[in-house]
Amino acid sequence: MRHFDFLDSSERERLFYRPPGDFSAADAPALLAIALGATLYTPATRPALARDIARRAAGGVVSLVVCLEDAVPDSRLPAAETNAIEQLRELARCGGPAPLLFIRIREPDQIARVLGGLGDAAGVLTGFVLPKFTEDRGAALLDAVADGTRATGRRLLAMPVLESAELMYAESRVEALTGIRRLLDKHRDIVLTVRVGATDLSAVYGIRRPRDLTVWEVRTVADVLADVVNVFARAEAGYPVSGPVWEYYSAPERILKPQLRETPFVAHCEARLRAELIAADLDGLIREVLLDRANGLTGKTVIHPTHVQPVHALSVVSHEEYLDALDIIGSAADGGVSGSAYRNKMNESKPHAAWARRVLLRADAFGVAHPDVSLVDLLAACLHHDGG
Length: 388
Prior knowledge:
This protein is of the alpha/beta class. The protein is built from 17 helices and twelve strands.
């Protein structure tokens, strides 16, 4: 699979200095974690789930989670599990386009049950999302994923979700995070990303962030995110940590100003696109994704198809970033400082080396834009061609 494959070849040539690369579920977790991009959640109760997954894949969705947890009422869980198995078997039979596919389970024994139900169709799965992950609860969940790998003969990856109350409480947070880190280190070969459940964390204090604010402006949650990055996303021997979900997908009356400057859109004759993004509440999502990356997060959990392409457009490496990264990596061993190719910043080889490696990995997955291609151009191309 490849990002932006829904664009025709001439459009890709117009946009990309270096096109996105191919990848598959068999690739190294370091690349896959970056390539996930916007991970779309969908309830396991959807009656046409197989068709929906194939349609989303054709429209540019690269990673998708079928949810058997919070998205499903308790009373409908058995039916949802049956439906997920039947629909994923249908997806495997059809052999059409499919994303990197995960199932969000509730309990460890669900993993064996789902894999048993899928049988020879288990190959459609990339892995499992493990919610409410703690040191005590997590060991059985990770063991169940490892057992699934042995039973199917296929590598299955795990994405634990940090969302328990003990992470919100200041007095227990550090111990809880370091305990989870010790556990994940024992299973490092199957851990793809660490995800953060900002909605559940907010619920501990009865908070729901408004559409006019990013998660980074809700201090109690932002403090947890900062500590998660501190413990898990260190440059040396760290884990990719994914950005939490953006909940909104249409904008009623706004209180605060829109968060997209008018000038870049007018300059690219895309004033209407700016209005569309604001009306769909995507200006808040765009700001939050930028803040996620600035704070060390990778990718984004999303709950609506309209969120996918903005996240992916924001993931394309700019030509300036790319040249900086190449310059830094090229001189990292010897060290030193040099002016950037764009003559607007200092590149310090050793301190910036980890950043440069991440940029080049993102370039492998999402490509590099031409020098004259802006985020506005990428957003316009993606949203005007959205096949979802």
